[in-house]
């Protein structure tokens, strides 16, 4: 026989094997010799380690010889010897040796041997035991084990053995071990189920015992595997085994006081877990009082950390069994409705706008899933591409600076520059083209739309009212309490509280402070519809007046000062000083011109006072161990102790008379009826716990994510738990360190007007509220809960909570009003969409300077197409303030470029507290291919502006749309690369030969070098089909802007760079905006004026080797979630599939990895 070098062929064991090999042809007749030889081999292997090594050594054919003998012999004793040899051999160095055994076809021979041995009457018990022990060793390493067992008939041999040997633990154990392996194959599981194996396993299970526990454990494992099959689960339910499992679990829980048998307890739970994958199973658990059993046992396990697996599995079962509820709402359609204009023509999407009543709940999967809107766009593209130039000519007026005779224009704004700006502002003084190199905002025509609507103070060209430019209107500002209590009070009585004088004189300040301190409810505006206000506040007035006074004195006593009337001076922050582009007075004016669907009449304090970024660091919140579990247990308690639940509705937009809460100080008060507010309903669940429901985007029935609401009536010292119960995304950065934002009016008044990251015990998980069958795909889809806990610091405070730093449309107008602006168009809701132009006047009238001025490249920026992404506005604020600053860099930028900026593409969405859509219930960033002038005016006109520029051969050098990203950290960009775009070429092979200008990479690369929050690693330059109607892609493909980007800023924080481990704040966001501008200046140096060849060299310098780029077709795919998964399952949907159909297939079909990757990247890109 063949031996390998190093193994002496004359070694004892090898000689015996050679002898065995010679016999193999005729082993049947030499039974006695075979017995002797195999016995000797066995002895050698048992006594000398080296013998085993020799047999198993590489190149040795020892295993073949042994297997051949096993295959050929019929002699029981020889078979026993050989299986003992195999047992000895495979016990050592298991992995490799078993592998060799399997690869030589050992499993099949074992099964054959088993079958023929089973035909002996009676079969040898010892042989059966040996063979099963061997199979139990081999099974887990052989992928085809289950199939082979079924095909050879071994399955039934084992099952019959078990049936006949229930009282024979010695034989039963290896049989069960083999059965456990059989059961992992789903077809086997079903076959065995039909053969009564489920019931058989229950015969083996027993109440607490110290005997044969390993047997029990294996039987439970096998049963658990069998119950993964839904037919078997059903069999268990029908057989009444659910109460038995629960009783067994209780018994073991009670008696296993030293936790020696955790695995058995876990095994029982796994059986229950698998049974509850079917609806009947969940029902059976509930009926057997399983919730209480599992809840109580888990509660008792809580103190012992090693029992966590039991608690977690129990928790999973309870979550699955928790009866599904509908949201406590009359309809999931938005509480507000906006009548859309009739869209002429048979626009296919037209039906969407005015849905039939029954079509209420049509929902697409999630806002991350962009696949839905990708049909039929290629034709639309054609229509749009060649807009006749006469039509485009109307956009000429927005580009006065590009016209031949621009010097003839009056470059002073037709609107007076604001007087409330700091004198150092470079753009306040009048600028004449000839003399001053200082920057101006080049004004253009006042309005495009005939309906054009400017904010009151902006629409006038009369001389400015010095300073108190809003003083006339101030009479209209009341503290809401007063207004509602005495609606007809003469306005003269209110003169003392004119806000214009807030920081002017001491006495006035004091008056106002008293006023403010007395009532911190809200600032209300006198509106035409004052009935709305009174009605809404009808009950609340009383409450307010009841607590108003005491609130005032509390304010005083909160501080360190004494509580005498004059002494207790509460500093109302002069945020105008701290916030150059925020003027509270002007803000109120701006609010009056803002049109909201609900006709809001109040102003939220944070928007009024403004926000000054705190100076302290705000680290990502460390997640406390077991926090989600604890929260889920509290949720389950609602079912266990229903009498403890208050279920008291304290706020409800759907009921105009609500909130009707008695003023007993037992409930918080909520309010969301102000610009950008979003909270639909609040239900007090327990004394200090509230379920909150968010409103859908207007004219839609989902997109719940953004929230912004006011809370008052709190107690100090209590921990309040808030649950937002209708979140939709499957995971959230709230699980990875993000906190909610809170604004305390008390803090603001005492000099810290700011949003701070706050909240403890934050987590985000799937809950027991079901999305309606129409709204949810697949069926049974649930909502998610965001829960956070708050300890309020001040008594009688008014606090605001928000998803992210609010930035309202009125705030933008407030800021933009200090700049000069055009109105691009009016939104659907009647709000004007500002277009800002920033550049410097030519240095002089010299030809050179004029020429330079005319040839300045354009930079086109936009933001806030998605209203919930408020961070985009803060980045934009940073860009604007930097561009307007007196820094030499800013000056240089203004001299280098003409900036065209649409800072808020979706004013209506912002005003009305939407998260994603405009009033048409559509995502405006999916309308760029074919925007409708009536339904998507801001997109239509912005695109037309760009088309005009392209037509004039002045397409922007850079286009960037600012966004926010809710699932990733850092700031990053999406760009457009032909090369990396798979869907365009279809053939990836050709794309690597493609030459492409890699200029699009320069800007993000520069940003990664200068902006600490920016991460190049998260950037992607793939153009997915699902994104083909976004601003970035349309501007790239149709306008021909190579550097067309989406810039995504995290809502959470950073995990790299200087801000690693910190949550993002407005300071960092604004810095990002400023750095973006600085990067443009560097880009200019690279684009090196007419020296285009030079550009590539320089860029490749920056970018490192170009070869790397060429070979990096997939390097910038962002493949999966950037966060690791949790130990605690956020979602248990994989476990609770309602689908009752049985998957009979042997193997789950292979998933095409490429497709998978593509769709993964789609769901993670969110521009
Ligand atoms: Zn976005």
From TrEMBL:
Biased composition range(s): Low complexity: 413-433
GO cellular component: cytosol; mitochondrion; nucleus
EC number per UniProt: 3.4.17.24
Catalytic residues of the enzyme: 1048
A Pfam family this chain is assigned to: Pepdidase_M14_N
InterPro entries the record matches: ARM-like, ARM-type_fold, CBPC1/4, Cytosolic_carboxypeptidase, Pepdidase_M14_N, Peptidase_M14
Name used for this protein in its record: Cytosolic carboxypeptidase 1
């Amino acid at each position: 026989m063949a031996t390998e070098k190093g193994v002496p062929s004359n070694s004892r064991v090898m000689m015996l094997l050679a002898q065995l090999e010679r016999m193999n042809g005729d082993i049947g007749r030499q039974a006695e010799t075979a017995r002797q030889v195999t016995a000797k081999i066995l002895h050698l292997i048992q006594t000398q380690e080296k013998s085993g090594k020799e047999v198993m050594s590489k190149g040795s054919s020892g295993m073949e010889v042994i297997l051949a003998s096993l295959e050929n012999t019929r002699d029981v004793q020889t078979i026993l010897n050989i299986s003992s040899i195999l047992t000895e051999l495979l016990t050592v160095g298991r992995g490799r040796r078993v592998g060799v055994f399997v690869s030589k076809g050992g499993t099949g021979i074992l099964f054959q041997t088993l079958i023929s041995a089973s035909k002996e009457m009676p079969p040898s018990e010892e042989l059966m035991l040996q063979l099963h022990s061997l199979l139990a060793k081999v099974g887990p390493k052989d992928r085809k084990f289950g199939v082979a067992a079924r095909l050879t008939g071994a399955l039934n041999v084992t099952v019959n053995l078990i049936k006949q040997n229930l009282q024979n633990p010695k034989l039963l154990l290896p049989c069960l071990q083999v059965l456990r392996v059989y059961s992992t194959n789903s077809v086997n599981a079903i076959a065995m189920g039909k053969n009564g194996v489920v019931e058989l396993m229950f015969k083996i299970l027993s109440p607490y015992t110290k005997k044969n526990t390993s047997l029990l454990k294996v039987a439970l494992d096998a049963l658990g595997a069998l119950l993964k099959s839904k037919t078997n689960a059903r069999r268990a339910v029908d057989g009444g085994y659910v109460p038995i499992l629960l009783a067994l679990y209780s018994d073991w829980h009670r008696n296993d006081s030293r936790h020696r048998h955790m695995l058995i307890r876990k095994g029982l739970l796994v059986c229950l877990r698998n049974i509850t994958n079917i609806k009947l199973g969940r029902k059976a658990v509930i009926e057997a009082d399983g919730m209480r059993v599992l809840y109580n046992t888990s509660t008792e396990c809580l103190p012992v950390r090693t029992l966590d697996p039991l608690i977690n599995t129990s928790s999973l079962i309870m979550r699955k069994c928790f009866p599904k509820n509908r949201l406590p709402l009359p309809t999931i359609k938005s509480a507000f409705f906006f009548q859309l204009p009739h869209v002429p023509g048979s626009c296919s999407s037209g039906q969407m706008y005015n849905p039939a009543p029954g079509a209420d709940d049509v929902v697409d999967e999630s806002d991350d899933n962009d696949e839905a809107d990708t049909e039929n766009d290629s034709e639309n593209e054609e229509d749009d591409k060649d807009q006749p130039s006469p039509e485009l000519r109307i956009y000429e007026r927005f580009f006065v600076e590009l016209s031949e005779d621009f010097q003839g224009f009056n470059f002073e704004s037709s609107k007076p520059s604001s007087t409330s700006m700091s004198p150092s502002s470079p753009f306040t003084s009048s600028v004449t083209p000839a003399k001053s190199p200082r920057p101006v905002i080049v004004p253009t025509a006042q309005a495009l739309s005939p309906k054009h609507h400017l904010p009151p103070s902006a629409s006038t060209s009369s001389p400015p009212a010095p300073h108190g430019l809003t003083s006339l209107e101030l009479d209209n500002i009341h503290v809401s309490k007063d207004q509602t209590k005495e609606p007809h009070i003469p306005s003269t009585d209110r003169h003392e509280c004119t806000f214009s004088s807030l920081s002017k004189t001491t006495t006035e300040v004091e008056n106002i402070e008293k006023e403010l301190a007395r009532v911190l409810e809200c600032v209300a505006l006198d509106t035409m519809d004052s009935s709305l206000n009174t009605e809404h506040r009808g009950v609340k007035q009383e409450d307010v007046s009841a607590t108003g006074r005491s609130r005032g004195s509390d304010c005083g006593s909160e501080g360190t000062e004494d509580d005498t009337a004059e002494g207790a001076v509460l500093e109302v922050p002069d945020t105008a000083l701290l916030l150059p582009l925020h003027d509270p007075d002007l803000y109120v004016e701006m609010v009056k011109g803002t049109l909201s669907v609900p006709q809001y009449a109040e102003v939220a304090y944070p928007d009024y006072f403004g926000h000054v970024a705190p100076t302290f660091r705000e680290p990502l919140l460390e997640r406390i161990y077991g926090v989600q579990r604890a929260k889920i247990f509290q949720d389950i308690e609602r079912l266990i102790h229903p009498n403890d639940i208050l279920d008291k509705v304290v706020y409800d937009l759907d009921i105009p008379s609500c909130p009707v809460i008695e003023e007993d100080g037992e409930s918080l008060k909520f309010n969301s009826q102000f610009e950008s507010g979003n909270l639909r309903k609040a239900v007090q669940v327990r004394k200090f716990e509230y379920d909150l429901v968010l409103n859908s985007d207007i004219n839609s029935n989902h997109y719940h994510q953004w929230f912004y609401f006011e809370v008052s009536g709190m107690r100090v010292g209590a921990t309040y738990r808030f649950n937002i119960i209708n979140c939709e995304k499957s995971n959230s950065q709230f699980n990875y360190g993000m906190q909610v934002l809170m604004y305390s009016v008390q803090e603001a008044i005492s000099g810290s007007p700011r949003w701070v990251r706050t909240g403890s015990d934050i987590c985000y998980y799937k809950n027991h509220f079901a999305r309606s069958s129409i709204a949810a795909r697949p069926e049974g889809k649930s909502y998610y809960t965001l829960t956070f806990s708050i300890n309020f610091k001040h008594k009688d405070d008014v606090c605001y909570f928000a998803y992210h730093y609010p930035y309202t449309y009125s705030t933008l107008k407030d800021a933009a009003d200090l700049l000069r602006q055009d109105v691009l168009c009016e939104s659907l809701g009647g709000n004007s969409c500002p277009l800002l132009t920033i550049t410097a006047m030519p240095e002089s009238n010299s030809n050179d300077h004029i020429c330079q001025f005319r040839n300045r490249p354009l930079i086109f920026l936009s933001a806030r197409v998605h209203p919930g992404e408020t961070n985009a506005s803060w980045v934009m604020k940073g860009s604007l303030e930097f561009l307007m600053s007196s820094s030499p860099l800013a000056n240089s930028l203004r001299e280098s470029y003409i900036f065209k900026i649409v800072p808020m593409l979706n004013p209506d969405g912002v005003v009305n507290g939407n998260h994603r859509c405009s009033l048409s219930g559509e995502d405006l960033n999916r309308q760029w291919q074919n925007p409708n002038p009536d339904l998507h005016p801001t997109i239509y006109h912005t695109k037309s502006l760009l088309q005009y520029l392209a037509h004039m051969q002045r397409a922007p050098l850079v286009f960037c749309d600012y966004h926010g990203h809710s699932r990733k950290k850092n700031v990053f960009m999406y760009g457009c690369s032909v090369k990396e775009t798979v869907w365009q070429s279809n053939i990836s092979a050709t794309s690597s030969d493609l030459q492409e200008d890699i200029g699009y990479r320069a800007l993000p690369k520069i940003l990664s070098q200068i902006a600490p929050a920016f991460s190049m690693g998260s950037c992607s330059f793939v153009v997915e089909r699902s994104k083909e109607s976004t601003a970035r892609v349309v501007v790239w493909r149709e306008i021909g802007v190579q550097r067309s980007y989406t810039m995504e800023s995290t809502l959470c924080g950073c995990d790299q760079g200087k801000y690693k481990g910190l949550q993002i704040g407005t300071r960092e966001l604004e810095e990002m905006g400023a750095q973006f501008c600085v990067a443009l200046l560097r880009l200019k140096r690279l684009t090196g004026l007419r020296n285009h060849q030079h550009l590539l060299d320089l860029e490749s310098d920056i970018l490192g080797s170009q070869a790397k780029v060429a070979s990096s077709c997939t390097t910038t795919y962002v493949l999966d979630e950037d966060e690791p998964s949790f130990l605690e399952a956020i979602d248990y949907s994989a476990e609770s599939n309602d689908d009752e159909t049985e998957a009979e297939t042997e193997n789950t079909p292979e998933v095409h990895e490429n497709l998978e990757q593509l769709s993964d990247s789609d769901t993670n890109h969110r521009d």
